[in-house]
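Most newcomers find our protein records easier to grasp once they have seen one. Read left to right, the backbone structure tokens trace the chain's path through space. Once this layout is familiar, the rest of the handout is easier to follow. The record below serves as our worked example for the rest of this section:


***
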Amino acid sequence: MISLERVSRAFAGRRSAGPLTVLSEVSLQVRAAETIAVVGPSGCGKTTLLELICGLQQPDSGSVRCPPAALMPQRDLLLPWLSTVDNASLALRVQGLDRRRARAAALPWLERFGLGGFERARPHELSGGMRQRVAFLRTLLAGKPVLALDEPFASLDAITRAQMQGWLSRILEQEQRTVVLVTHDVEEAVLLADRVLVLSPRPGRVLATIPIAVARPRLRSDPAVVALRAQALDALGSGA
């Protein structure tokens, strides 16, 4: 489904320092309907990796093969003048559907996403978790086979974040999309992913790939989850 072969990416730096290499020789294969979580320190190229997968950037060397992908950025980027249903159906409008048909396609999803009764609400009337659900629904309704999620819950408080992790796990089980999730939260990665890819500090390179062979739903207190979290943290520490 997704294949990256020895991908490197650099950006122009200060003239005296030369180019700033963000990713170095990264290889990754993702199967259809698999969820991969990418963890690593700030500045190691995680967002750049997502943008390469989505075709928003091109590698300086190596190759990227990926079917069409929809990117959900860190901020929800909901349009403040649009209602919940119109924000959720925005991707359908971009594809050419008129407002009536786009709304009709999005409305059945709102109840399923815990947004029933808020169809006409504006973003400022929604909680942080609800805003993220609208943003995710907008990404899902784009109809792409690959979802690229960039720290989707980073702005949420701990309780809401835990609730959203459980909610997203259930949705992904039902939808069977191919997902690449970037997160700073190692526990979140273990709870949601089929595999965790650990990147080194910049320039990002692959330190470890950790399979998560634990049945869903996963509990934070499960000894297997705790052990896998520790394994991922150890891998991160080895690249410091």
In short: The chain has a mean pLDDT of 91. The longest strand covers residues 20-30. Residues 158-175 form the longest helix (18 residues).
